[in-house]
Amino acid sequence: MTETDPKIGTVMAVQANFYQVRLDEGQTLLCTRPTRLKKIGQNVLVGDRIYVKSTEFERGAIASVTPRKTELQRPPIANADQILLVFALEEPTLDPVQLSRFLVKAESTNLKLLLGLNKADLITQEKQKEWEEKLKLWGYEPYFFSVENNQGIEEIKTALKNKITIFAGPSGVGKSSLTSLLIPQLDIRIGEVSGKLQKGRHTTRHVELFEMPQGGYIADSPGFNQPDFDCNSQNLINYFPEARHRLSQGQCKFNDCLHQEEPECIVKGEWERYEYYLRFLDEILAQEEKIAQTRDTESSVKKMVKDSGKVYTEPKLNTKKYRRVSRRLSHQKLEELYDHQSLEEEDYF
Ligand SMILES: Nc1nc2c(ncn2[C@@H]2O[C@H](COP(=O)(O)OP(=O)(O)O)[C@@H](O)[C@H]2O)c(=O)[nH]1
Ligand SMILES: [Mg+2]
Ligand SMILES: [Zn+2]
């Protein structure tokens, strides 16, 4: 055992009970979390800056965890600076609704959000200009790039330098291609569906950091490749920049306005994605209702017998009451449902 001062490093990956730590001085250690840290409830996440005592060759023990700048639960990552949401302009054709789902999910992390549109080689200048103008109205200034012909890559390198950036986006858009362009020595598979490779319970919780030669890390997690919402009916509106802008100009009449048909609502109006907002809101309300019903099943269902003789259950409470319950739902409850959902999606992929 070497008795040296603790050294500082970054947690790159977690494997079973071991933490892969890259020391600032260059070495990679496999570390354990001592019982002392477990006892005080100190968890260790990928991205954490930690002090390590090296014990023997390439092994170490975590001495302490430095305070986090940011923290995400799903996927679990500490100190991420930003998200780069990647979509393709073609192959697959950019779909504004799907893009908006991912944007909402990314916005709900409250991390800085960068939008990168790949495969610019497959569309005309005019088409690109159209997207640029549309997205400007949504409140975004995307990076147009192409891994294929190296277009726009320098701008992305600059934006990622010395930061921890989470790569997010659906499969097939070029995330792996971009990663291997930025980190040529990395051996990653292009054109593979990520979910297929890492099937299993913890897929959405798995995170790994890859170090870029010019400084900074790329965080890759399948947990960000699914567009499930991480928000509730009351805060959904905050994840649309153009609506945030409207809300900064005034107030709706009702505090709990959902910006549907309520009178004197300042959000409702002529903005392109308002209809997407309504659509997503409906989905979230339906989810919340489902959770409320599941939670109340034992106490509030009555057994009904159909004409056919088939027995079914029906909620005792009326829908209005459920709606009031659902608006007060905690984030916790929502997450439980989304957990189930993600698992089902993983099985599917
Ligand atoms: N035309 C074109 N194809 C690309 C570009 N970038 C990636 N691809 C192709 O898109 C497919 C999916 O890429 P991949 O990196 O695996 O996407 P991922 O699923 O997001 O990781 C592969 O066949 C890539 O060769 C690009 O800039 N232009
Ligand atoms: Mg990939
Ligand atoms: Zn309103």
From TrEMBL:
Its main location: cytoplasm. CDD domains: YjeQ_EngC. Binds 1 zinc ion per subunit. It is an enzyme of class 3 (hydrolase). GO terms for cellular component: cytoplasm. GTP binds at N118, K119, A120, D121, G169, P170, S171, G172, V173, G174, K175, S176, S177. Its EC number is 3.6.1.-. Residues 78-225 form the EngC GTPase domain. Gene3D superfamilies: Nucleic acid-binding proteins, P-loop containing nucleotide triphosphate hydrolases, Probable gtpase engc, domain 3. Residues 69-227 form the CP-type G domain. PROSITE patterns: ENGC_GTPASE (PS50936), G_CP (PS51721). It is found in: Cytoplasm. Zn(2+) binds at C252, C257, H259, C265. The keyword RNA-binding applies. GO terms for molecular function: GTP binding; GTPase activity; metal ion binding; rRNA binding. One of its GO terms (biological process) is ribosomal small subunit biogenesis. Its cofactor is Zn(2+). Keywords: Cytoplasm, GTP-binding, Hydrolase, Metal-binding, Nucleotide-binding, Ribosome biogenesis, RNA-binding, rRNA-binding, Zinc. Belongs to the TRAFAC class YlqF/YawG GTPase family. RsgA subfamily. One of several proteins that assist in the late maturation steps of the functional core of the 30S ribosomal subunit. Helps release RbfA from mature subunits. May play a role in the assembly of ribosomal proteins into the subunit. Circularly permuted GTPase that catalyzes slow GTP hydrolysis, GTPase activity is stimulated by the 30S ribosomal subunit. Monomer. Associates with 30S ribosomal subunit, binds 16S rRNA. NCBIfam families: PRK12289.1, ribosome small subunit-dependent GTPase A. This is Small ribosomal subunit biogenesis GTPase RsgA. It comes from Cyanobacterium stanieri (strain ATCC 29140 / PCC 7202). The lineage of its organism: Bacteria, Bacillati, Cyanobacteriota, Cyanophyceae, Oscillatoriophycideae.
